[in-house]
Amino acid sequence: MTELLSNYLGGQWQTGSGAGTPLSDPVLGDELVRVDATGLDLAAGFAFAREQGGAALRALTYRQRAALLAETVKVLQANRDAYYEIATANSGTVKNDSAVDIDGGIFTLGTYAKLGDSLGDRHYLLDGEAARLGKDPLFQSQHVLVPTRGVALFINAFNFPSWGLWEKAAPALLAGVPVIVKPATATAWLTQRMVRDVVEARILPAGSLSVVCGSSAGLLDQLQPFDVVSFTGSAETAAVIRSHPAVTQRSVRVNIEADSINSAVLLPADGPDSAAFELLVKEVLREMTVKSGQKCTAIRRVFVPEAMYGQAAEAIEARLSKVTVGNPRNDAVRMGALVSRAQLRAVRDGLAELRAHAQVLHEGAQQALVDADPAVSCCIGPTLLGARDADSANVVHDTEVFGPVATLMPYRDTTHALALVRRGQGSLVASLYGSDAGALGAAAVELADSHGRVHVISPDVAQLHTGHGNVMPQSLHGGPGRAGGGEELGGLRALHFYHRRSAIQASTGVLATL
Ligand code: NAP
Fold first, then answer.
1. 379 φ/ψ angles, rounded to the nearest 5 degrees
2. How far apart are the CA of 476 and the centre of ligand 1, in A?
């Protein structure tokens, strides 16, 4: 029997009373560890976090909490090697892809440590200027933002066990709100290990950071009016969370990050020999292959002017054909595995659905694997599809295949291209490629209402831009509509989710003391 990982709740390590759910190596098929949350006293654990953790965090100033984040960064950095080992074993990722999750999480935490320091020695924030309420300026209204006196429950997706924790925990802890994280079962090990290291380092006050690994059963039932829940995962589970009585009856604030059919668009003015064309091809390749396409922000749809469809297909295919797939422990391998056999089945099913409405431009599903047994491993090569009639390709605009899959489509003019992008019904990110600053700016603003982020790649930023799918803590992450309607990160904006806004109406003498 493999090790049964402990949960940390109520200020103590607790093992579930069940046999546990095994976590596997998606390349070798071996069982690694087990997780279980059966029999935990959730009510006592949530109360401990809310009362002990919350009170201790709120007693500190923003600057003091920022210092705790900086200390946490040091602990995580000191243990990076162990995290990489877990990621290789449990997520089947090559080193560069593990870095996106591990170092991306640590970087985000470090960024909030710096941002938090700038808020100084305060316990709450002023929101805007005071406004007079009548003719006489003596009586005014000042909005304040105070930390919510509840817990932040995070229910996370399997693809970012590290970044998914820290991109949420950094603003929550900085705001003074204790965190309970429930990682997705398939990859819970890395989250559990990081929490363990931070708890053992005794940096954060007791009750500030808890982890529950295993079933989500009963977690939402614990939520009370001043708690918040932040969910990342599928639209189906998001619907379950939205309809839970905690949300519908107790007004628990909820943030949803769901799936998204993100786009890349080459604007019409730049031809097949242009730098913009080359930048699009490079980015599509990167987005299809990083973490084997298991990124909520990955490019799923690629739009090019119709005259360039053939050249774009050829250029992307030429690059894809060089991608080696298999065991991430082999240095020759560029792309590792999907996270589980269940995900492999889901990708194959999704591909079959898309193929019924598109042609195959590059076939990855049958690709030979390096150092990996196709009967055991969860590896699959990248597949590029093409749909010549983008208007009628409904499935391509609707179906997220969470793997190394994208579909190329031609458009007639910019208006047509942007209309096709919007068929995604709200996305996390779209990227635009071109060299005409005016056209790029206008297209970016056109897409802003339906996208949390518009990433514009022109030749002048070829070496500088941060990547279509890379989520930077300074920029908003989330998207309207189908993407879940959530908002995360965006620098200090992220703190708003963890604060309550209140208007204090008083004489200017009272307001001057705030
Ligand atoms: P999922 O099946 O919805 O699971 C997400 C989380 O919800 C897991 O922790 C899961 O726990 C938990 N869960 C399952 N059923 C639940 C229930 N009834 N009540 C409460 N929690 C429940 O999603 P996934 O397959 O892990 O993630 C893939 C999806 O996430 C993709 O569609 C991707 O686009 C999306 N995603 C979005 C973002 C973003 O930021 N927008 C980021 C990453 C991924 P168990 O694992 O124990 O079942």
1. -90, 145
2. 20
